[in-house]
Amino acid sequence: MEPVEALRDIAFLLERAGEPTYRVRAFRNAAAVVADLPQDELVRLAQTGGLAALPGIGKVTALAVTEALAGDVPTYLRRLQATEGTDLDAAAAELRAALKGDLHSHSDWSDGGSPIEEMAAAARSLGHSYLALTDHSPRLTVANGLSAARLHRQLEVVEELNVRLSPFRILTGIEVDINADGTLDQDADLLERLDVVVASVHSKLRMNRYEMTRRMVTAIANPLVSVLGHCTGRIVKAGTRRGGLRPESEFDAELVFEACRQFDVAVEINSRPDRADPPKRLMRQAFEAGCYFSIDSDAHAPGQLDWQRFGCERAALCGIPAERVVDTWPLDDLLAWTSGQ
Question: What is the pTM of this model?
Answer without folding.
Answer: 0.82
